[in-house]
Design a protein that fits this description.
Number of strands: 9
Largest sheet: 8 strands, antiparallel, barrel
Number of helices: 1
CATH architecture: Beta Barrel
Distance between the termini: 26 Å
Strand content: over 45%
Radius of gyration: 15 Å
Length: 146
């Protein structure tokens, strides 16, 4: 069963150096994370090459999305195949080229980081890593502004 990125991020560690695209402008609204971002692609890096595929929205009439608000809060909105939703709330802050998220998990505050690869007026692209059976994997999510 497919899980929302929020759950996947709970197990991720930060790696690597971040490189933003040349059209990033973090000083203006065009580069602001605030807003509604729909998942559009997901993938990974294999032998130094990005492999991305279209994000599979389970609901045929609604798309999964992240929404960041000015007050430092955000929601991850996931729709199941029957189009019922699961909404996860978290706090966030931007620190350089990282999104630092915090949320309650098992009665304690959990903090996770995402590497911002691209943040501009239309695209929000992040990477994060996970270790599975001793092997480190780098995952990529691409979201588009709505």
């Amino acid at each position: 069963m497919k899980q929302s990125i929020f759950y996947a991020l709970a197990f991720m560690l930060t790696i690597g150096t971040i490189s933003c695209s040349s059209d990033d402008d973090k000083g203006s609204d065009s580069g602001s994370i605030v807003g509604k971002w729909t998942y559009s692609q997901e993938g990974y890096i294999l032998n130094g090459t990005e492999i991305l595929e279209a994000y599979d929205h389970e609901c045929s009439t609604k798309k999964d999305f992240l929404e960041f608000f000015n007050n430092g809060t955000a929601t991850d909105n996931y729709y199941y195949s029957d189009c019922t939703s699961d909404i996860e709330n978290f706090n966030y802050q931007i620190n350089g080229n990282k999104v630092i998220m915090s949320y309650m998990g098992n009665g304690e505050t959990v903090t996770e980081e995402l590497n911002i690869l691209t943040l501009n007026s239309s695209m929000f692209k992040v990477s994060f890593t996970d270790v599975f059976d001793g092997v480190e994997y780098t995952y990529i999510s691409v979201l588009t502004r709505q």
